[in-house]
Each structure stands twice: as structure tokens, then as C-alpha cells.
């Protein structure tokens, strides 16, 4: 599939990491991402995401949670569309 700009990749692993007691769960990747030439991306270790999510009233945390929710909602809608007759 092709992702539009500014999309989050790896949201399932992030959620599993955030649900672990101390952020120590680092599940293996479920997909391989190939970027076209000239693409830009940002990559953070899961431990950094975990620490940023633990900060109280973190704008970053709220923004990431919103991105995860939107990404999962979009994937669910696409999957449901495949099964509607």
C-alpha cells in the first residue's frame, strides 16, 4: 500500500510498548517499509516514545495518541469496506 504524507508507521508496536509495565516490550516489526527516493522520515526508538508518553500533560503524547487513533480507525474502515457486499 502507499501511505499519504505525515502518516505514522508501527502504531501496533508502539501500543504494545506503551502497555508494558516499564516500556520494556519491543515487539518485532510486522511489516517492511520501503520509501521512495527523496522521501523524508523521522525515526525514534520505542524507549523514547515510551518516555515522552509518560510525561504528564504532554502535547507530544496527545498528538501521538491522536495519530495512532486516526491510523487505526482508517485501517479498520478500509478492512470493513472489503467485507461489505
Can you put this structure into words, describing what you see?
49% of the residues lie in helices and 0% in strands. It has 85 residues and is mainly alpha-helical. The mean pLDDT is 82.
Uncertain runs are none
Order of secondary-structure elements: HHH
Shape: globular
Main β-sheet description: none
Radius of gyration: 14 Å
Spatial gap, N to C terminus:
22 Å
Q: How many individual β-strands?
A: 0
Q: Indicate the mean pLDDT.
A: 82
Task: Give the helix level as a range of percent.
Answer: 40-55%
Beta-strand level of the residues, as a percent range? under 5%
| SS field, number of helical segments | 3
Class by helix and strand content? mainly alpha
What would you say about this model in short?
With 85 residues, the chain is mainly alpha-helical. It is built from three helices and no strands.
SSE layout:
Blueprint: H1 11-19, H2 46-54, H3 59-82
Helix pairs in contact: 2-3
What structural keywords apply?
single chain, 85 residues, 3 helices, globular, mainly alpha, 0% strand
Amino acid at each position: 500500500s502507499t501511505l499519504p504524507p505525515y502518516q505514522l508507521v508501527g502504531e501496533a508496536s508502539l501500543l504494545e510498548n506503551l502497555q508494558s509495565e516499564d516500556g520494556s516490550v519491543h515487539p518485532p516489526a510486522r511489516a517492511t517499509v520501503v520509501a521512495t527516493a527523496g522521501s523524508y522520515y523521522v525515526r525514534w526508538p520505542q524507549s523514547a516514545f515510551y518516555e515522552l508518553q509518560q510525561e504528564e500533560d504532554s502535547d507530544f503524547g496527545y498528538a501521538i495518541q491522536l495519530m495512532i487513533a486516526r491510523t487505526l480507525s482508517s485501517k479498520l474502515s478500509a478492512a470493513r469496506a472489503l467485507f461489505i457486499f
